[in-house]
Amino acid sequence: MLMGQHATDVLVWTHHTDMRKSIDGLCLLVSGHMDKNPCSGEIFVFFNRVRDKLKLIYWAENGFCLLYKRLEKGRFHVPASSDFVSLTRSQLQLLLQGLPLKHWPKNPQISFEKYG
């Protein structure tokens, strides 16, 4: 999926959001409540009250992109936090699939003694 190819950070707003908001309304939420720059290149994710719909926005070189997803069955599972949660891009892919946090794999810590 072409989604913020250069973005490394994904920020999930944990409070419910009015899904009637479009790019401008979501950008106001990002700058006002999250105290972030919507044009920073980060991916911002928002959910409705029932958590069966999400909107995702990000800046892509010369304009904003908006992705909307509605689950036909089930709900999106969002980690509990105060206002927003930071995810990796791989965790975002799992979130978009509707998988609960407990099913998200943990990356093992790897270190090398020697190369070659």
Report the total helices: 2
| Strand portion | 25-35%
| DSSP E strands, number | 5
Can you summarize the main beta sheet?
5 strands, mixed
- Poorly predicted segments: none
Structure notes:
This protein is of the alpha+beta class. Helices cover 16% and strands 26% of the residues. It has two helices and five strands. It has a five-stranded mixed β-sheet.
Key features?
about 120 residues, alpha+beta, about 15% helix
Give the structure's gist in a few sentences.
The protein is an alpha+beta fold and 116 residues long. It contains two helices and five strands; from the N terminus they run βαββββα. Helix content is 16%, strand content 26%.
Helix-strand blueprint:
Elements: E1 10-16, H1 23-32, E2 43-47, E3 53-59, E4 64-70, E5 84-87, H2 89-96
Parallel strand pairs: 1-2
Antiparallel strand pairs: 1-5, 2-3, 3-4
